[in-house]
Amino acid sequence: MKTPLQLAGFLLCALPVSAAIPVGRGEIGVGLTAAETYDSNLYGNPTSAGDYYASFTPALTYARNAAVLKVTAGANLSFLRYAKQTQLNADNPGANFNVRYDTGEDTRLSGAVGGSYFEGSDVNPDLNTRVRTKSTTFTAQGSLVTGPRTDVSANGNYNNVVRSVGSDQRALNSGLLFHYNGFLGGYNLRLSGDYDRTTTSGDNALNAPIDQTSYQTQVGLERRFESDLHIWFGYGFRILDRSAAETASGNTQMTTPVFTLSLDGPILPQKYFPKVKSSIVLDYSNSATPGINDNGDSKVFTGRLNFDWQAREFTTVGLAFVRSQRLSANDLSVVSSSVQLSLTQRLRYNLNGTLTAAYDWEKYRNVDRADRIFSVTAGLDYSFAERWTAGLALRANQTTSNLAGSDYDRYVTTVRLGYSF
């Protein structure tokens, strides 16, 4: 009996070779991908078993790059079948779109809207079990040049995550930004206002739904240097209205000062490091969405420090330090820190390889839990016969935690075959 990957390969071989289908001023593309995967730990805990599963994913894409409206869209349906754990069999749909308005470099008005929908299941490291997720996202952004020295921009983002285990979470983030160029010599004045709304279903230790509304205003100065380094520092206030049940103190409103320092751009001079590209983004502020029993008054450094070294013509080595704050699947505040080392190598004109090693620290606030995660990922991507692709991906995770149920190892290996026409 043929495996799903062998059967999919047979079907792909029977397909006719044809170009993308023109539609109006755009074109439609069709892609088919078959894969087989072994996952040694399906639920992300010390007692979980492993299994093999196969997937077959047909996909449609649409692209329109003509005129001032640039449109991309896609839809796919992934069929997953497990060898033993048949209760995990699923048909997972996905879709996305993006519409961008851009008249060129001298445009006064530009903007974009986008959205995506995804269904699937994977190990959730916060809950140490497998969670099925339905995720819907919408984004919008726009900017307008209002004068020789002024411009305004606005953005909005809505994300709705529905989980089979843990809290469902909905977040609306929006912001308005005003720039006045040449305010103080080479500095620009920056005024911003943000409105954030976060709610959850309350599947957490307190059985208390998170219900938060945040208002934030900041005033600051920014400057761009000839080296492309962009510095911005600002000071303002955040007013947070929240449910009384979220914290032991029962406080429903909190006003805190917010200080932000951001450096974005190269920090190593190209004159002395011509083969190294560097960048830094650094912020110092308290969490905009504190979890349960988190008063939200603790400020934390977050950001990213990145170095990319072009060691040889087809060899790139990367080093990154990342720190961030997030809301976990069980409504806890988590501070994440990571060190990542990567290698990208072009082995042949149609064969590329990647290797990444990372070490992550996950600190959960107001609970006695701290995770250490060491991970290694490797991959090969191969293109052949014009429209065919193949790939091999390996991932190994070792999680060490002071919480016994969060201590586990996991290995995932995937082989895939794809065809596009």
3D architecture notes:
The protein is 2% helix and 67% strand. The chain is built from one helix and 21 strands.
State the distance separating the first and last CA atoms. Answer: 28 Å
Taking pLDDT < 50 over at least 5 consecutive residues as the criterion, the unreliable ranges are 7-18
> Treating each run of at least 4 consecutive H or I residues as one helix, how many helices?
1
How would you describe the shape? globular
Question: β content, as a range?
Answer: over 45%
Return the structural class: mainly beta
Q: Mean pLDDT across all residues, rounded?
A: 90
What is the chain-wise order of helices and strands?
HEEEEEEEEEEEEEEEEEEEEE
Please give the largest β-sheet: 21 strands, antiparallel
Q: How many E strands?
A: 21
Radius of gyration: 24 Å
Helical coverage, percent range: under 10%
